[in-house]
Structures are given as C-alpha cells and as structure tokens.
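Hi there,

I know you've been waiting on this one. I reran it after we fixed the sequence typo, so this is the corrected version. Both the input and the resulting structure follow.
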Amino acid sequence: MDTMRDRFAPVVTRLLDEDLRVAVVLAEIGKDGFAEALRRHPDRVINVGIREQLLVGAGAGLALTGMRPVVHTFASFLVERPFEQVKLDLGHQGVGAVLVSAAASFDWPAGGFTHMAPGDVALLDTLDGWTVQVPGHPDEAETLLRHAVAAGDDRVYVRLSVQSNARGRTVDGEHFLTVREGRRGVVVAVGPLLDEVLDATEGLDVTVLYATTVRPFDADALRRAVRGAEPDVVLVEPYLAGTSTAAANDALSAVPHRILGLGVGRAELRRYGTLEEHTAAHGLDAASLRARISAFLGAGAPSR
C-alpha cells in the first residue's frame, strides 16, 4: 500500500491541472514528486530552498494575490520553526493556505528530535481559525486534501503520516464517525490510531468514535455518544497527549464527566529506534491502550 505522502504529490498535481488558483510552495522537501508538475506549471510550483520562514511567507504572499497555496515540508519545519510567519503572515493578514506536513510526531526516528513534531496541533490551537485534518489512510488523505484545497480561502493544516489504518473510511472533512457502539464509555480515536484502538477495545462495551477532522472539534458527535453511554471519555491522539482535552471538556460542559487524554508523552525519547518502538514507548500500541483504557473506564467486562 502506498503512504499518505506517496498520494500527496499526484493528488496536488491533478489539482494544479484542474484549478488555476492552486500553487505549490516547497522548501526542498518533496520536490522530486513535483518534477512533472513543475514542467507543466513552472509559474505555480515554487521551491524556496531550505528557508522555512520564507516558505510560509511566500505562501501568504500568493494568498494575498488570490491564489490557493499548498505549502509542504516536515511538520517540525512547517509549524514549529516558522510559527511567527504562520501566526502573522497568514493569521494576522487574514489569508488562507493549505499547510501539508510530513513526518508527523515521530515517523522518522532516525532524524532525531529535530524532525519530530508531537506538539504541532497543540501549537496551532493557540491560533484562531484553523481547520486541522488528520487522515488515517491514504484514501482519506486524498479526500481531505481535495476538501482542504476547495475550502475557499480557509487556513487548513493536513497532517500526513507513515502510520496508517488497514482500510480507509468515508470521511467528509467535518464530522466524527461512529465505528462501534457501547455503554461503558466513549473512546475517540484520531487518524492513524484507529486500528490500534479497535484492537485495544475488542470485546469491551464502549463506543468508538473516529476523528479525522479534529479542528473544529465535533462537539455534537461527542455529546450524542455520551447520551447512550457512561459520560467517561478517552481521547487517543497521535500527537501530544491531552491536546484535545479542553475541546472535549467544552463539549461536555453541561454533563458531569471524566476525560483521559492519551497520546505522545512530553518526555523526549533519545534513542532512535523504529516507529513501532516509539509507538509502544508512548503507550499507543494496542496492548498498552487496552490496559490504560480498561483501567480508566472500568471496562474490563465483555460487551453483551
């Protein structure tokens, strides 16, 4: 199976062909995938070199002229390093772009902590007006990329990952999906962690919601889910643990509830290892998730 990033360049190349507003801005990373697009659209495929602040600034400049820029590099170089430009060149000026990241939280452990960005979504939460898409499969990535580019002049962050669920699901760029229904709590699985959550909750009497659009947070879906279950919620996110707990608390402000936020821990893991080893070390593998979810929800009994 191809990866989300494998799907990125072909999808955006087709969008360049289809829509004269679309432009792509790169900072060396991913340029080989756009070689044919550069030949066909030399004025709308721009490589600024290893200059991430310029990367975002150039995208904002294109947006000011009415273009729909798609801006791409690793998450740590797209959100963290040029954060001032994301905040000012896009947000303060009131223009939009589609920021598409790669490497996620720790997709490339050999790159070290400079190439890891578990805090990217939490950082964007400090800004107003961002839509955040976290696909869990290449098919979903294609759908959400198209949705993001077509989203008028909104500011959209699409977080691509090597991690993937076994199959894609029908996503609409807005709502959570109900994958499983139960009565002893609600587990919200974000993007590529759905399969781990489904394995972890097999036989447990819990509702599983699947989130690929995490901002805006689908408060209505969470409120509906807790009506038929214990008002205890576990959030399982492929980035910094607790990133969405405030959004979930706001959604359930009228309901007595408990929330457990699971995700990437704050402690830096200084051994390179593999992606799977990092997943397990952060307690996001199925076995660890089952133990943590069961302990919190008291959901050890099988479903009826």
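Quick highlight: The first helix runs from residue 4 to 18.

Best,
R. S.
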